[in-house]
Amino acid sequence: MSFENAIGYMETAIFVIMAIASVLAVAVVVERAIIFVKNTKDSSFVLPEIIQTARKGDLSGAPKFSENYPENVYARFADFSSEHSKGGKESLGELMEGKMIGERVGFETRLSILNTLGNNAPFIGLLGTVFGVISAFYKLGTLGNAAGEVVMRTISQALLATAVGLAVAIPVVMANNYFTRKLKIIQSNLEILSKEFLASLSRKG
């Protein structure tokens, strides 16, 4: 295999990798979007109702939310907190903290893929550009002055690899930032619920 052919195969491999990365990114974004939507559906009125129930001191009424909204993260958390509230405030606090960590891990699943793709896609594209520039200079050295048009065309194709890398990375980073912000909101709301349940137990005590 000649040097020029080897470089050409490497360039092709870079574009294949970018194509696979883009398909993987779309799949992860769609899957995570479905998970976030399912777990936060109806939260605009479920969350205030749970808080109101906790402030009334009626922790026994919390399980009704998970029955009506079994996929809602706040309803699940309320059910869990109600179920373990008999163990006392200190025990419940530790259990709720563990539950919040478990929910966070569930939401963060596969987000590391987006983070990795967003951080590395531009470098993969840049690697393709480097291969293209190497090929351009090789042709320049081989063909001499007659290689001007070929070299310019090769360089333009090489720069396309960087453009593709950025085209993959930018939307992936935006999607990852969106999911990260949503997760922070969910985590903050769970912490609010945790404090409400603990305060309810304190009033009872």
From TrEMBL:
What Pfam families does the record tag this protein with? MotA_ExbB (PF01618)
- Kindly give the membrane topology term recorded for this protein: Multi-pass membrane protein
Where exactly are the transmembrane stretches of this chain?
6-30, 120-138, 158-179
- Cite the entry's keywords alphabetically: Cell membrane, Membrane, Protein transport, Transmembrane, Transmembrane helix, Transport
Q: Which organism is it from?
A: Leptospira saintgironsiae
Location in the cell? Cell membrane; Membrane
Record protein name field? TolQ transporter
Q: Which family does it belong to?
A: Belongs to the exbB/tolQ family.
What cellular component terms from Gene Ontology apply here? plasma membrane
Major localization class: membrane
Domain MotA/TolQ/ExbB proton channel as annotated: residue spans: 85-191
The Gene Ontology biological process terms listed for this entry are: protein import
